[in-house]
Amino acid sequence: RRARLHTAMSSPPPLTFLFVFIRSLILPLITALTYIQALIDSLLYDRVHIYFPKRSFFSLESDIIEKKRRRCLLAGDKAMSSFKFRFATREDVPLILHFIKELADYEKLLHEVVATEEILDEWLFEKNKAEVIFVLEGEKEVGFALFFHNFSTFLGRSGIYLEDLFVIPEYRGKGYGKALLEKLAQIAVERGCGRLEWWVLDWNTPSIEFYKAMGAVPMDEWTVFRISGDILQKMGTK
Fold this sequence. Notes:
This protein is of the alpha+beta class. Helix content is 45%, strand content 21%.
């Protein structure tokens, strides 16, 4: 997601080479340890047939969204205008499900996907409980975002919760992920929303750093709870 900038430089001092060498050893080690921990956690949880991946909660507050919107306006919105977007229609259900499964596979959670085309059609286009927007290269959909409105009692108004964001691997590094987030921020501002929020898996360090660079704040003091499956059915039928 980061563009590479090549500039002519004079030969760096020996200490710089030493720093780069040490950094090149440490970063892969940290990444490897992170993945090993995730694998161990996964195996431990799988023994009791439960898997709760660690996630971080991110939020873009309305003032940050507004600042980004103004910056785009002052810049003539050149960055946004270079990307094409469109909202999904009923005919896109197979593509939406394909993107959902691709993202789940990347997150090592494909086994948890029980959604079908029929379910998505009902909840997205009959009950209208969520929306999907695509980013395009030419006429090809290369990424998508699925989102819906939540509500903040403190702000007294709705926000946007981003459930899924995915860009096809071969199209990454071209700014499509950032463009989707900026488009969602634009939608949030246009609809008068106070926040744009989402989760990210704790081991997904590149995405976490990317979100922080955009101004998103990790909500580290909050813990997400969930009731689902048989427990939900049992509680709901008492």
